[in-house]
Amino acid sequence: METTDITLLRKSSAASGWSDSCFHVYWEGLVFINGILSGEESIKVFTQKIHEVGIEEAAKYLKGIFFISVKEKKTGDIYAFVDNSGLYQAFYTKEAISSSFLKLADYGKYRVKDLNPDAIVEFLYFGTLFFNKSLFEPIKRIPGDKILRLLRGDQNVTMLSKQVSHISEPLENGTEFFYSAFESLAKSLKNRTVSIDLTGGFDSRLIALMLDHFGMDFETAISAGDDRYEDVVISEKVANSIRHPWFSTIQ
């Protein structure tokens, strides 16, 4: 494909953007920095950190499930990445990047004849594709630990490594980190509508209790087959005890 610039295909024209004198930042999904309101307020802090420590270091502060592109106004260069866990699916080729697989496939004019048979078999067998593959060989998923660097006038996509801690690295103070993590999360999500899938399991009950402890406003919900099911009974009791709305969908 003949092109002089990398193309950014936006998934939605309604998605969010923010600019300062040097950068324009565009994002989709939920993005926040611990203790900072999600969305624009966190993006402002992130942009300031780009000025201070560079984008590879700044990216480690972002939490959530998101896709972000950063355009440097002076050079026209674009940096694009997803959340550190790679949960938000976004894609790239040598010519373009997008959070929409279909838009990227249409832009590259990929059709049925271009489908990768091995990828189809893998998807049908496992229900997913591994190693950042897609159904078309030229289209790849953006890995969670990398930043795409798309230089203006250069068709070669290069990768930068995010400066993030590995999940296996020990914490200095696990208990203190646990409490501060929930306190920061509650502060960051105060501008969001939150619904917790509250079951009878320990993990969802703990999340609900911790966020309630730090004063967060949220509703709870559960979907189950019978209102006499133990998980449903426990869920309602927990919601009532912490005085948060509870909704059930009985199938």
- CA gyration radius, whole angstroms: 21 Å
Domain unit count: 2
- Catalogue the unreliable spans: 1-5
The gross shape turns out to be globular
What does the main sheet amount to?
Answer: 6 strands, antiparallel
CATH C-level class of the largest domain: Alpha Beta
**How many DSSP H or I helices?**
7
What is the CATH H-level superfamily of the largest domain?
Aminohydrolase, N-terminal nucleophile (Ntn) domain
Structural class: alpha+beta
Protein model, in words:
The chain is an alpha+beta fold and 251 residues long. It folds into 2 domains: 7-161, Glutamine Phosphoribosylpyrophosphate, subunit 1, domain 1 (4-Layer Sandwich); 193-250. The strands form 3 sheets. It has a 6-stranded antiparallel β-sheet with strand order 2-3-4-5-9-10. The model is unreliable at 1-5 (pLDDT under 50). It is built from 7 helices and 13 strands. The chain has helices at residues 40-53, 55-58, 101-107, 117-126, 174-188, 202-213, 230-241; strands at 7-9, 16-19, 23-33, 62-72, 78-82, 91-92, 96-98, 140-141, 146-150, 158-161, 195-197, 219-224, 246-250.
